[in-house]
Amino acid sequence: MNDNMQVSGEVWKQSAIVERFLDFHVAIPLAHEQISVMLSLLATRTEPVSSFLDLGCGDGILAGALIGRYPEARGVLADFSELMLRKAREQLQWHASGLQFVDLNYGDPAWVGMLSAAGAVPPAWQAPYDAVVSRYSIHHQPDVRKRAVYAGIFELLASGGWFVNIEHILPAAPLATELFDTAVIDERHALEVQNGGGKSRQQIADIFMNRPDRQANLLTPIETQCDWLREIGYEEVDCYFRIYELAVFAGRRPDKAGLTVPAG
Prior knowledge:
The protein is an alpha/beta fold. The chain has ten helices and seven strands.
C-alpha cells in the first residue's frame, strides 16, 4: 500500500483532521449551487425519491438536502469514519426515524455485499435505491477502485435511479487549481473576519495548503470518470456543473428490467 492510500484510510479517523476539514468545508465555492444541481437531476424522475444511499456521507449535508426535498424518503448514510457518522447523526437527529447509519468502507471490494448483508440495515432500507449520492469522498480511492465503486453503485440502483457525484476532480490546467485554492482561502478568511477570529489570510493559507488530508486526494479528470460511467451502462452521463477543481457529474441506470453488471 502506498503512502497516499494509507493516508486516505486513516486520516478521517483523526478528530483534529475531521474538524479541520469541516472548518474549511463551509468555504467551498458555490456549494449550495452544487447541491441544487443534484436536486434538479433527481427532480427529472417521474416519481419522487423514496429511498437513497449517501455514500461517504461525511456530516450528512446531502442527506439533509434530500430529506428536505423528499421528507418521506428512507435514507442510508454510509461512512467508514465514526467521527463523520457521529456528526451526521447530530446534524440529522430531527429525522432519525427515517435514516440508517452504517459503518462501511467502500474501498473494500466486498462492500456491496456487506451493505446488503442481513443485519446491516433493516429490509426497508436495503437496495435498490432511487438515488445514490456522494460528495467529496470517492476521490480518495485509486482509479481502479473508483471505477469498481461506480459499478457497484450501478448494481444498487433501481431502474431509472440516479447516481450523482459532487466531487473533487483533476483539472487539465494548473490555473484551475490556483483559482480553487485562492477561492477557498479568501472565503475562509472572510468568515474568520466575520466571526471575529484572529487568523491572518496567510495563516489560513498555510493551514489549507499544508493540511494532512491533502495527501489523501487521488484526483482523476472528469472526462475519464464520465467515460467509466458510460462503459458500465449508465445513461444521461454528463458533467452538469463545474467550477475549478469541483464538479457535479451523474448518470442514470436505464429503466430496463434485468440490466445488471458485476459488483465492484
